[in-house]
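Example (one chain per record):
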Amino acid sequence: MLQVGKNPPQRWPEDKSLQEDTGNWWVVYTRPHNEKALAWDLQKLGISYYLPMTTKRTRRLDNGKPRKSVVCLFPSYISLVNYPQHKRDILNTKRILHAIAIDNQERFVYEMDQVSRITCVDIDLQVHNDLMVGQRVYIASGPFKGVEGTIENFPNSRRIYLNVEMFGRSVSMQIDPSILIPIN
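Predicted structure:
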């Protein structure tokens, strides 16, 4: 595990916004635990990328001391610009399994910009694989047990969901949605 200060930057080049990157964004699916190493490789190759990360705080099991680590928000995924032009160099890193074209570039950049805005603040973030706005869910416990509905938004809750359609996931902050069960 890397020390907190030894991680690659989330965005490279660091002074360029996601909207400023010309060309098509692609998502590559990496070999397990290769996202950060690929980010360093992309930086050396001069290829723009975005790798959202968050700080995870845990306690060590052996002595109870706090532990802080930087983890990828979307494990095994990294976004980059103009994959076809750099395909050979990227494949030579032997870190990716396949590339995914993004159909709706504007939406993807908008969603990644939203994620970028919340990852630059040091708060507890969690990725939820099964909960997205528009999805049917039922409440598993509490006074509303068995009630079904559709996730629209959470104006009265302490949890905000930011959807990332490309990954089929949403990023949330601050409340435990464990009482919601997705309906297939």
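Caption: The longest strand covers residues 53-59.
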